[in-house]
């Protein structure tokens, strides 16, 4: 379709002492594209004679040029307009419209007549749909006039997006640090098991939630001799070896905690069968009696265990449950060590 290389724009002024109308200013196509990359030129019957480079990005197949404007766009203001004369009759020439097949994207526009040809010029902008349009049509700063505030808005959106991204990363790092700090607060640094604080927290939660559990209190036998004979480094080696055994003998949902120098608590959630708990205790003791390699020697220990369950102490608090397990542990010590003893029902500090 043949289009003029220049467009005559009428300059109207109402300033005092100036003529009502000045001669039209002629703009070549390059200047018009630079000033109004979102423009449309319509014929008197509503055909699109020319469109700006940014509008072409919305329809890269080129089906806008030559099409009837009112078939491609739907007017929101003035609603239902179907002629160029109706567009020109709008007060202030302000329009609101959208592509009929893209109802989510809304344009703002201004319409002005072009000299006496009957043609009109529409200068459009994306309005509140700017960010969506940039994302959908891969627009860049080159698609907007240099004076268009959209450029500043895009910079703000980009800066905000970058700031939000950095804030998200910072929050993730802070959350990771908090989790690490909490984990450290509940972890015994030597063995990697839970510590007494973690054990107290778990016992309180289980009691509050009414979740049944079994509890084993393990105290190592002959550990003092290892420390006295071979030194604390050997003792640390023993404690770490014991921790590995306890982790192996517990499930993921259970708790293995070091609560003293050579004392450990095992909490088995939803396991109150004392026969099974006794088997676990016996198995742990057998594994503890296997000599632990240390340099050119072998370190020998054993263990004594006291067993109780929440069923043995239905109304007892965590402290009383631990005392009940202690009584069973001392019974194992008095009976010759290297054994597991179940606390009889009704035997405990609350009895």
UniProtKB/TrEMBL annotation:
List the keywords (alphabetical): cGMP biosynthesis, Nucleotide-binding
Q: Which reaction does it catalyse?
A: 2 GTP = 3',3'-c-di-GMP + 2 diphosphate
Q: Which SMART domains match?
A: GGDEF
- Offer an example of a GO molecular function term for this protein: diguanylate cyclase activity
Which segments constitute the GGDEF domain?
211-345
UniProt cross-references to Pfam families, sorted A to Z: GGDEF, HNOBA
Lineage, top-rank taxon, reads Bacteria
- Please name the InterPro entries in this protein's record: Diguanylate_Cyclase, GGDEF_dom, HNOB_dom_associated, HNOB_dom_associated_sf, Nucleotide_cyclase, Rev_trsase/Diguanyl_cyclase
Q: Does the record bear Nucleotide-binding in its keywords? A: yes
Tagged with keyword Protein biosynthesis: no
NCBIfam families xrefs: GGDEF (TIGR00254)
PANTHER family the record matches: DIGUANYLATE CYCLASE DGCM-RELATED (PTHR45138:SF9), REGULATORY COMPONENTS OF SENSORY TRANSDUCTION SYSTEM (PTHR45138)
For this entry, the protein name equals Diguanylate cyclase (GGDEF) domain-containing protein
